[in-house]
Amino acid sequence: MEELQGLQVYKFGGASVKDAAAILNLCRIVRDFGPQGPLVVVVSAMGKTTNALEEIYDLAYRGEDYSAQLGAVEAYHHRAATELHSYFAQPDDTMVTQLPNYFQELHQTLQSINSVGSYDEGYDQVVSFGESLSAYLVTWALGNALPKQVLYNGALVATDTTWREGRVDWVKTEERTQEALHGLLNDWRGRVMVTEGFVGQVQVDGFTSTTTLGREGSDYTAAILAYCLRAERVTIWKDVAGLLNADPKIFPDTVRYPEISYRETIEMAYYGASVIHPKTLKPLADRGIPLYVKSFLDPAAAGTVIHECQHPALAPAFIRKTDQCLLSFASKDFSFISEENLAVIFSALAQAKLKINVMQNSAISFSVCVDFSERRVHQLLDLLREQFTLHYNTGLMLFTIKNYDAASIQQLTTGRALLLEQRTRSTFQFVCKA
């Protein structure tokens, strides 16, 4: 195992690369705050590109016209490319000339999408283009902005064929990262390598196919690469001051945690805290790699460090998940919900790829709250309707208070009709209408 002393991983999300000005700010952060040693930069798709590509894919899959939506995505990236090109005095011209090739390839992929094996497999082939485009623009901008060698490497994470939720093949991924590392080994000081977040690869029948790691999976990519490269630290650059006890767009008077433990953060991420992807912390904790959450709007500020530590009682954390669905299953013969019934329900939930956010059972019924996907919910209903009476409600919200107290519960529940509530020693959750 070859190692580079002082290697760090930076991850920049969609808001931090949303346009030319944001990408230039990324360049300034790498120049002014980046490490003296080698740096791996992981990027998400620009702005809301992933949402736009999801819409385009749905249209293409249904055989409907997507030309206007695709044209808007292309114009958006072309505008950013043109503005970046005009910023530099003597820029390399390859970006503006090569960018159309990406969209030609995307168009060809969309035209042949119905020949792909499944909806989820096709999704990965299309939606992953957002990260490829972003990584291309960021690589070009860094290469023109910095007096250091900037390298680009495509998806480094090897996965299985679990489309849209690729499971990491850690052995192959470590082999790939080691190969990529050779590009940094010769006179590595100050070198930068840019790669795509969210995206993985798998070999299927001798051909390389694209997979993805789940929505917001670029954080996870950064952690995977840090684990495989034995990085010194990871920094996730966000539009907030660090890890806060609530989303400042939703809750007033938020509190920043200066430091917080891996375990506490893993639990907050599991319940839906938007700052960190739920799978990010485990590989970092396994290697003892600290994770810093910092603001790209104020890069000199302290932010938050997540590591193995002891801290006093934390301020209650408020987490809200929207677009929730409450599903209730009842036995048709009024018999008790048994372990055998639960095994059938859990198996069907796994088949439909529905993640349980809250569950609760009574004598003759079992309820779960999940992220709503019409296609997946109907798949679940098809699997279970012969055995159970099923009801579901959509358009709901799930609130979680981590480290709750009486005041925090009253603050969130006052004036709301609770459809389901549950509390443990440290966590209070409830489902209500949006």
From TrEMBL:
<dbReference type="InterPro" id="IPR036393">
    <property type="entry name" value="AceGlu_kinase-like_sf"/>
</dbReference>
<keyword id="KW-0808">Transferase</keyword>
<keyword id="KW-0547">Nucleotide-binding</keyword>
<comment type="pathway">
    <text>Amino-acid biosynthesis; L-threonine biosynthesis; L-threonine from L-aspartate: step 1/5.</text>
</comment>
<dbReference type="InterPro" id="IPR042199">
    <property type="entry name" value="AsparK_Bifunc_asparK/hSer_DH"/>
</dbReference>
<keyword id="KW-0067">ATP-binding</keyword>
<keyword id="KW-0028">Amino-acid biosynthesis</keyword>
<protein>
    <recommendedName>
        <fullName>Aspartokinase</fullName>
        <ecNumber>2.7.2.4</ecNumber>
    </recommendedName>
</protein>
<dbReference type="InterPro" id="IPR045865">
    <property type="entry name" value="ACT-like_dom_sf"/>
</dbReference>
<comment type="pathway">
    <text>Amino-acid biosynthesis; L-methionine biosynthesis via de novo pathway; L-homoserine from L-aspartate: step 1/3.</text>
</comment>
<keyword id="KW-0418">Kinase</keyword>
<feature type="domain" description="Aspartate/glutamate/uridylate kinase">
    <location>
        <begin position="8"/>
        <end position="295"/>
    </location>
</feature>
<dbReference type="InterPro" id="IPR001048">
    <property type="entry name" value="Asp/Glu/Uridylate_kinase"/>
</dbReference>
<dbReference type="InterPro" id="IPR001341">
    <property type="entry name" value="Asp_kinase"/>
</dbReference>
<dbReference type="GO" id="GO:0004072">
    <property type="term" value="F:aspartate kinase activity"/>
</dbReference>
<comment type="similarity">
    <text>Belongs to the aspartokinase family.</text>
</comment>
<dbReference type="Pfam" id="PF00696">
    <property type="entry name" value="AA_kinase"/>
</dbReference>
